[in-house]
Amino acid sequence: MTEIAPEVLGADVVKRSTRLADGRELIYYDDPDTTLGAERAIDARTLDPRPATATMRLDVLTGDWISVAAARQNRAFLPPAELDPLAPQTPTNPSEIPSLYDVAVFENKSPSFGPALTTAHGDAPEASNPPRGLDDLAALGLGRTRTSVGRCEVVCFSPEHSGSFGTLSTTRARTVIEAWADRTAALSALPGVEQVFPFENRGEAIGVTLPHPHGQIYAYPYITPRTTRLLDSIDRTAPDLFQRILDFERGSERVILQGEHWTAFVPFAARWPLEVHLLPHRHVADFTETTDAERDELAPLYLRLLRGIDALYDTPTPYIAAWHQAPVGAGRDTVRLHLELTSPRRAADKLKYLAGSEAAMGAWIGDVPPETSAARLREAVEGVSL
């Protein structure tokens, strides 16, 4: 055991940074009312060398960069509880986290991006063929490749084997939000990172391979295709597009719940059977710009939303909870932090699959009118208690 020096963040969350046996970063975020002490176990495992950094290939037809990360083929797939790689280590379970924890964040063992970013610790090799800026990445040409610099992190919401963000206490949810803000700041400062994306995949229907309550954070070496289209839409309309959207939706019947700082609604042109957007009432580019008051309100409001979505059916609802943030160096004054939560579940026993029109052409056909979806969600959320 070793004592790790604390750093106090907002809401009295305590941060303790350390390293895993192969040099990957591990950060503990302790709840303000934690029962954990300052000492944490040392990761004494003997680990294989970290995998080679993936390579990106340019799709010249679309301009998209595709990261080819073969090491991900070896990641854990639905392990039993006694071999949960995100649970605290035991004598019989050499998991990724040495000690009991409240919230823990660590570098992914099989990342889609990284670890080819040099740091003060010198634990990652320099990229052999890194991107040379956004202009370089925007250039089209056959056979173009670049090293997939960046970072992929796992955010463990709880030491429990099963659950999701929606099963957390309000205090624990607030700790996770503080971790998102702290990691967004740290990852945005890494060389070569252009955008930071926190998200949670929930449910086997989404493709989740670990039932442990967790999310992820990707730090990309480019501005993602979705955000590139968003920036174009802002250029073609107005710099205050997000405020206009918020005002438009708050005047509609699609609002699900709202507070002093946040509003959740089903968007006017929803694609998925279940789709909810959550926006702050003022412009903030990412989690680092939110105030303590905004984070304090977000924790219970977000929990109510997720529990309402689960209350629609007798079994938990699969979803992707995607926190869109402004790029590191572009659109900071126009792209607003917001959640886009989507689920393919269109009935208790039916899922929407992306077939020819959606998957091949990107031409969506909605199954449920957004107003109908909003009415069902609003009723479900109203019955939720924290």
Could you give a short account of the major beta sheet? 12 strands, antiparallel
Q: What's the tally of helices?
A: 7
In CATH, the topology of the largest domain is named HIT family, subunit A
Give the domain tally.
Answer: 2
Please compute the radius of gyration using only Cα atoms: 21 Å
Give a quick rundown of the structure.
This protein is of the alpha+beta class and 386 residues long. It has helices spanning 134-138, 170-188, 225-236, 241-250, 292-310, 356-361, 370-382, and strands at residues 2-3, 7-8, 14-19, 25-30, 39-40, 55-59, 64-68, 103-107, 145-147, 151-156, 195-202, 214-220, 255-258, 262-265, 274-280, 319-324, 338-343, 345-347, 350-351. The model has no long low-confidence stretch (mean pLDDT 93).
How would you sum up this structure, described in words?
With 386 residues, the protein is α+β, with helices and mostly antiparallel strands. It folds into two domains: 221 residues, 2-Layer Sandwich (HIT family, subunit A), CATH 3.30.428.10; 156 residues, HIT family, subunit A. The protein has seven helices and 19 strands. It has a twelve-stranded antiparallel beta sheet. A three-stranded antiparallel beta sheet has the order 7-6-9, with no helix packed on it. Helix 2 packs across helix 5 and helix 5 packs across helix 7. The mean pLDDT is 93.
Task: Write out key terms for the chains shown.
globular, HIT family, subunit A, twelve-stranded antiparallel sheet, 386 residues
